[in-house]
Structure formats: C-alpha cells, structure tokens
Amino acid sequence: MAKQRSEPKLNVLVFAASLRAESLNRKLAQLAAGVAEKHGAIVTVASMRDFDCPSYDGDLESAQGIPAGAQALKRRLEEADAFIMSSPEYNGSMPGVLKNTIDWASRFRPQPFDGKQGLLLSASPSMAGGNRGLWSLRIPLEHLGARIYPDMFSLATASKALVQGEIADSALRARFEKNIEAFLSLAEAAKHYPCIKRAWVEFLGEQPGTAADRVDPVPA
Ligand SMILES: Cc1cc2nc3c(=O)[nH]c(=O)nc-3n(C[C@H](O)[C@H](O)[C@H](O)COP(=O)(O)O)c2cc1C
C-alpha cells in the first residue's frame, strides 16, 4: 500500500520534453505523475508547449526580455519543491527545445533551478531507452544548482513496453514506481531538513569580477 506522507505535502512539477501529441515521454510522465500522487505529492503536470521559446538570442533578451515560455517554467519551478522531467534522446543528447528553454530560464535571478530536486526519465523506441540523453541533460541542470537524483529511469523499446498507457511488464513497472518513491523520499527529506546552504555561483572558483559574477544570494 502507498505510504501517505505527513503535511506539508511535496509539490512536484512533472512534464515531458516533447512537443508531439503521441509522445512516449508524455505517457511516461503521466505514469510518474500518478505514482507521485499515489505517494501523497501534490502534482502539477505541465506541457512542454507551455515552455517553448524562440531560439536564445541576447539581442531579443535585451529588446524584449525573457519570453513567456521561460517565464512559465520559472513560475512552475518556484511553486515546486521538486521536478520530474521525461525527456526524449535526440542524437545521443537532449532535445534542442529543452536546452533552449533551460538556457532562457537560466537568465532569471534568482535562478529558478537552484536547489530544486530533480528526477530524470526517458522513453525511446531504442534498446538504450534514451539514457545517454539524460547524462547530457544532467550537465546544465546540475550546473544550475538542481540536485539531480542519481537513479535515472529509461524505458527501452518504449513503443512496445507501454501497453494501454501502462508499463506492461510488472517487474519493470515495480522498478519504475520504486525509483519515483525513492526520489520523493529524498525530496521530502530535503524540504524538511535542508542540510546544505550555499550561494549559487555560476562560475565557482573563478576570480570574482563583473564578467564572471552571476551569483545568487544565500537564501534566508
Ligand atoms: C532528431 C531525432 C533524433 C533522434 N535521436 C535518437 C537517439 O539518439 N536515441 C534514441 O534512442 N532515439 C532517438 N530518436 C528517436 C526518439 O527516441 C523517438 O522519436 C521518441 O519517440 C521521441 O520521444 P517522444 O515520443 O516523447 O516524442 C530521435 C528522434 C529524432 C526526431
């Protein structure tokens, strides 16, 4: 039976980094949302379409500011204690649409990924399930101060593994649910017992100076 967690509940943002309607990653994200709800989290399922942005352009930023898609992601992250992203793998890496939105969102101060707990999932028709893409996705997210959970679930041969919106193999389904439950336990612990307090410094270790200083103050 699902463990019911004590108040206040965890707020978890869940989305898939694919724009297409029949996305396998969207299906996996939906499953993850269901598991998180079963374990007592307050879940917001968002669509990548809400976060889509024009290609990053410093001139556009100077003239018009940060676009609505990145603003929407920032708001969602601010409301959340943790996020779960299910991302396709494109050419052994993350999709450009996701990296572009991350780049835009990284321009806000305070920087909205800093300190958020994150779980990465992927689904792919391939045998590796898109796992290489998740290793590349860790890089910008960890650079931005997100705490990315060590175990990343990648659903291989996803077009066959998902049957009527479920992971058909019961052992695999149990592993998926356990992965999410374990992540939620860590996110809940981090919410109630913050043990690391630090300022986010984008270029840690460089000589302080205006060119390199993109520093968020230590939260109260
Ligand atoms: C441009 C492009 C590159 C791709 N590269 C990979 C890849 O490197 N590895 C992989 O497993 N699948 C790759 N695929 C296949 C995707 O995994 C597949 O289209 C998947 O269904 C996309 O995720 P979605 O269903 O959530 O949209 C690629 C697809 C596209 C369109």
Protein architecture, described:
By secondary structure, the protein is an alpha/beta fold. Helices cover 40% and strands 15% of the residues. It has 8 helices and 8 strands, in the order E-H-E-H-H-H-E-H-E-H-E-E-H-E-E-H. It has helices at residues 24-38, 48-51, 58-64, 68-79, 96-105, 131-143, 158-161, 170-192, and strands at residues 11-16, 42-47, 82-86, 117-123, 147-148, 153-155, 162-163, 166-167. The strands form 2 sheets. Strands 1, 2, 3, 4, 5 and 6 form a 6-stranded parallel β-sheet that branches. Strands 7-8 form a two-stranded antiparallel ribbon. Helix 1 links the parallel strand 1 (11-16) and strand 2 (42-47). Helix 4 (68-79) packs across helix 5 (96-105). The chain is globular, with a radius of gyration of 17 Å.
What general outline do the C-alpha atoms trace?
Answer: globular
Q: List SSEs in N-to-C order.
A: EHEHHHEHEHEEHEEH
Query: Got a strand count?
Result: 8
Instruction: Average the pLDDT over all residues and give the rounded result.
Output: 92
DSSP helix fraction: 40-55%
Helical segment tally? 8
> What radius of gyration results from the CA coordinates?
17 Å
Query: Which runs of at least 5 residues are low in confidence (pLDDT < 50)?
Result: none
Listed once per kind, the bound small molecules are:
flavin mononucleotide
- Taking the alpha carbons of the first and last residues, their distance comes to 38 Å
Share in β-strands: 15-25%
Structural class: alpha/beta
Largest sheet: 6 strands, parallel
